[in-house]
Amino acid sequence: MKRRNFLKLVGSSTLAFAVPGCSDRKNDPLLEYTDKELEFVDFEILCRSVHPWRNFSELVLFRSTERIEVYSGRSELGQGLTTVLVSVVSQAFEIEPDNIDVFLANTDLCPDDGPTSGSAATRNIGWAIWLACLEIKDDIISEGAKRLGVDSTEVRFLRGIVFVEKDRKSRISMFEMRRDGIKFTNPNTTPQKVQMYRDPGLGSVRALEIVTGQLKYAGDMMVGECRYGGFFTPAEFRTGYRFQPADLHQTLAVPGVVTAGNMGQRGPFVVAETFPALQAGLAAMNRKSIVPKGKSLVKNLVQVREQAVLKKTAKDTGDIEHHLKSCRHTLSETYTTHSYNVAYLEPQTSVAIVTDDEARLWDSTQHAHRQQQMVADATQIPLDRVHVTGTNVGGGFGGKIGHRSGAEAALISQVTGLPIKRLFSRAEVFQRSSRAKEEVAVDLISGVNDEGKIIARSVDIYQDEGHGLTDIYKIPNSRIRLFRVSQGQMAIRHATIRGTSFTQDVFAMESHMSSLAHSISMDPLEFRLNNVRWHRDLLHAAAEMIDYGAYRPPEDHGLGMAIINHGGRQFGALFVEVDVDRTTGRIAIHRMRAAFDIGIVICETTATVGIIGALIWGLSISMKEELKKDENRILTNSFSGYDIARFSDIPDMKIKFINTYGNGLSPRGCGEMPLPLVAPAVANAVYNAIGVRLFATPFTPERVLAAIRAQQA
Amino acid sequence: MSKLKKVITVNGDHHEVSADSSEPLLWILRDRLGLTGTKYGCGEGACGTCTVLIDGKAERSCLVPFEDLEARQAIVTIEGLDREGELSPVQQAFVEHNAFACGYCTSGMIMQATDLLTINKNPSRSEIIEAMNDNLCRCATYPSIITAIESVGQETGRESEDQS
Question: What's the 3-state SS for B69-81?
């Protein structure tokens, strides 16, 4: 059976390894062990290791190469998956990182182990590969000791060789064992078997390629050999229009345009020699080809809340109404959030070559196998004849799962017979990508007793889809309901950008917590400590980092805090210090101090960059970003009209990792979790600074001024 | 638009290029010369991803039309920044401080920082922020980029002190 087919059959993450070159011969206890002895036969499958509780399989292969190869269907988005996998295998087999190759997101080579999303790549793939390595290493050591006639406690394992500690000439390589038919036990490893695992100080393994411009993204493929292709995609695309065949005369007259055509309800398309010529060709399209269906969209979610239907009751314990009535202190509030775009710097990009019965695609995707399916569906080419290579991704954040550039490139290539590069323009990213958060509204009502314990709370969330709320507090009577507003009524589709809507939900929940505390004249930290299920150590750690107890705010300065439980796996606490200019409404964030519990931190350097980045993302969407739209269109079409966080926005930031929950043995991910902390922490700080509660994001100066004036009125 | 044919100088090499007069340098570098380290981000000079050096000065290559280029101008891209295989000090500092995540904006960041450090050997933090402020990083690796640039400046500053 061909290796490729076998991999598809087992549908697993795959690890291949062999004895690497020795990097430190001077201190090498096996110095006299010659390279010749390390040679081994060319065979493939050594052991398959299944890790049932993660629902992922790992395969360990020996190949006739002096390198270790790791395969996963997930993508490298800059989250550091490559580095994590190198780090894991390097540590497990005590070998140098330089000897490990990682192959990701290739439908020919890699198993489909799901989309790269949910901050789960390290948690799932990294952890699974780590356990696979340990299982196999354990088996190698046991088998080696048996063959050497000693107890397994008397041997050591180094770079694929088992040797007796006291008699180093007594040794055997795992490859020799394999030749004789080693049997691997494939135990169901439990987390308790695994020792705490820490960062070996490994920086990004892609660093040299990145700083020299050699790292390849999808747009860097087939340079000079393919043509640029694109569809006519007006901003009204999602608002109920259909296409009729376009008159292409003006487009075909544009210099550099190679060809153009109509492709049914996918609309007119253009192929050009250059990207600027493509844009000019598309701009010359006659807008009469767009036929409105006569449907007009609503402007925002608040306008259609009355029509929302109950989609799900996520939690319902106790008797809410009864206990709310019995509480002396109750507080009812509504919070709303705004629309924003994923706005990655690398637009969605695909390069396709389609012949009669085969398609090859290079794609900036977070899920290569889904792109494969989409291309197969669009072109009607059998799935096994569609080959997708997921390239390095220039930022994904959830916005490059199932994006359309792949199928579009393939379709245009199929029709024209040309290799096609489909590069979304910046305007398309904003207006057409469907990768934007829609508005969310959250109604909360809580009842608190005299001791500062929350007795009852009801949370109603209004949004068009998605729900990621995990409650943090121990509340005996608690209800969380999700009301869904029909997507057809909304201007944009609600996307899972760095998580589902828990970013919005946490803003409401954590703002409400501080509001509740103030309503009973209790310190917000004390109030949280009084009600929280876990996280006390996290709260204390972050509070200490900002010197909460000794803080004496200058005029119009204040501290705010927020905590989060991300899916019961990742936890964080953030404190911020702000000052507010009452005349301009401008909020300045001076300090951010945060503590996180994310389990084992495999690569602290990478995790720190990711967490700091997520906090700044949180700052960006809380303070600056807002998609402009009217009843029919998304109006934002460029970075000129959409300001994201930049150098001048960055406060003094410090973070810390602590382990407070669970056995702490597994990595649990960190990409999404820090982001939602920022909006409520800032809103709470603003309240402490000037006594004004911000009920809606983003906290632009205009919105803050309006809140100040509303309170004065 | 009209076709032009002329010689441009990129990373010390002379290239005869035929392109539309209005075609931005970005696409000439990427599609005609194969220098893909310079990236497309917005096409309107708002993100800094396509930054290159022209006569030592950082420019947005998406805004420089072919017709404005002259053979005597020295264009340097990320591929031409290292010297005989040695990383430039800025490249080296970005590696040491892990000053990237997805890496898509990194070429532009490095070119912009190179311009800054040519003019100002040891910039203060606020000078770095001012000079770099129009280069965007969606992964928001800004703090480590600032640290990387500061480290180059401090090293240069130390060398200057040693020499004096």
Answer: CCCCCEEECHHHC
Average pLDDT over residues A502-528: 95
Residue A599: CA atoms inside 13 Å, Cβ hemisphere, count? 24
Residue A602 in domain: yes
Percentage of residues in chain A having pLDDT higher than 90: 49
Do A51 and A112 reside in the same domain of the chain?
yes
Pick the CATH number of B3-80 from 3.10.20.30, 3.60.60.20, 3.10.580.10, 3.40.710.10: 3.10.20.30
d(CA A257, CA A359): 24
Structure tokens at A309: 């239907």
Q: Do B102 and A605 touch (CB under 8 A)?
A: no
Using only C-alpha atoms, chain B has a radius of gyration, in whole angstroms, of 16
What average pLDDT does range A21-43 have in this prediction?
32
Alpha carbon separation from A224 to A196, A322, A445 (Å, rounded): 49, 71, 61
In angstroms, the CA A368 to CA A402 distance is: 9
H-helix or E-strand spanning residue A587: strand A587-597
Which residue is listed with tokens 């007796």? Answer: A164
* Strand, helix or coil for residue A631: coil
Q: Which of A77, A116, A212, A620 to mutate to test the interface with B (most CBs of B within 10 A)?
A: A212
B134 pLDDT higher than 90 = yes
- At A29, the pLDDT band (50, 70, 90 cuts) reads very low
Domain that includes residue A381, residue range? 218-292+348-423
The predicted structure's pLDDT at residue A592: 98
Is residue A390 within 8 A of residue A401, CB to CB? The reply is: no
Is the confidence at residue A190, as pLDDT, over 70? no
pLDDT tens figures, A454-495: 999 999 988 766 555 667 899 999 999 988 876 556 656 666
Fold of B89-163: DNA polymerase; domain 1 (1.10.150)
d(CA A307, CA A310): 10
Closest alpha carbon to A278 in A231, A317, A238: A231
Residue A589 with chain B: CB contacts under 8 Å: none
What mean pLDDT do residues A267-286 have?
94
Nearest-Cα distance to chain B for A608, in Å, is 10
Dihedral sign of CA atoms B114, B120, B122, B127 in order:
negative
Note the pLDDT of residue A186.
40
Is the residue at A442 inside a domain? yes
Q: From the candidates A211, A344, A429, which should be mutated to test the interface with B, based on the most B CB atoms within 10 A? A: A211
- The mean pLDDT of chain B is 94
Give the separation between CA A507 and CA A491, rounded to whole angstroms.
23
User: CB B140 to CB A219 under 8 A?
Assistant: no
CA A529 – CA A623 distance, rounded (Å)? 28
Same domain, A187 and A256: no
Boundary residue ending a domain (A379, A401, A423): A423
Predicted local confidence at residue A74, as pLDDT:
86
Q: What is the residue-wise DSSP string for A139-197?
A: HHHHHHHHHHTS-GGGEEEETTEEEETTEEEEEEEHHHHHHT----------GGGSPP-
SS3 A1: coil
| Amino acid in the structure at residue B26 | L
